[in-house]
Structures are given as structure tokens and as C-alpha cells.
Amino acid sequence: MKNYLNIQHHALSGYFERVAVESRFYATHISLLMALFYYSDSDAPEKPFQVSRPKLMRFSRIRSIATYHKNIKDLVEYGYIEYNPSWHPQRGTQIRFIIETASNP
Questions:
Q1: Contact between 60 and 35 (Cβ < 8 Å)
Q2: Dihedral over Cα of 39, 100, 78, 29: its sign
Q3: What tens-digit pLDDT sequence spans the chain (105 residues)?
Q4: 94 φ, ψ (degrees, to nearest 5)
Q5: Domain with 12 in it: what CATH number?
Q6: Which residues constitute the domain of residue 46?
Q7: pTM recorded for the entire structure
Q8: Angle CA 83–72–81, to nearest 5
Q9: Of 29, 42, 70, 105, which is least packed with CB atoms within 10 Å of its CB?
Q10: Would you say residue 105 lies in a domain?
């Protein structure tokens, strides 16, 4: 029997509901968030994780570095992620989802 992730009961379900009604987002924002989710630790989405720009761009199918950086900037500005860039070629950028909870509105 396969073990499928039930996204409706996942820790990020409220996060994705918030994303779904975000009128400022374009398809590139959504695809970048999906790439971030893919490379994060889905068992602990609130923990920081490291990932490289090329991996995120490849997964989200964003071809322009300018578009990638604008989308990252928007996600930070709108309060969806924390972003700590790394200019080290092997380490990758550190990202953390900002997840609102009942105790943290």
C-alpha cells in the first residue's frame, strides 16, 4: 500500500489556503512555492532548509534569474518565507516558511 501525503491535513494546509486567495501572485509565485515545498522537510515545514537557486528555477520552470529574484523578494515582502542568501557555491540559500498558527496570527 502506498503512503500518500494528505495535503488537507498537512501542517501547510492553511498556508496553501492563504496562497490560493493571494491576489498579488502570478503562476511563477505558485510554482516557486511548490519548488520550495518540494525541497523542504515536509515533516517539519517550519524548520529552515537549504536549497540552490538552480534547483528551484529548474523545478519551478522559471528561466529568468530576474523573475526568480523578483518572486523571492515578493514572497519575503508578503510574509510567506524568510530568505537568507548564501553566495557559497555548495551550501545553497537558507529558506524558512512563515506559517501562521492560531497562537501566532
A1: yes
A2: positive
A3: 555 555 555 667 788 888 888 999 999 999 999 999 999 977 777 899 999 999 999 999 999 999 999 999 999 999 999 999 988 778 889 999 998 764 444
A4: -100, 130
A5: 1.10.10
A6: 7-97
A7: 0.80
A8: 45
A9: 105
A10: no
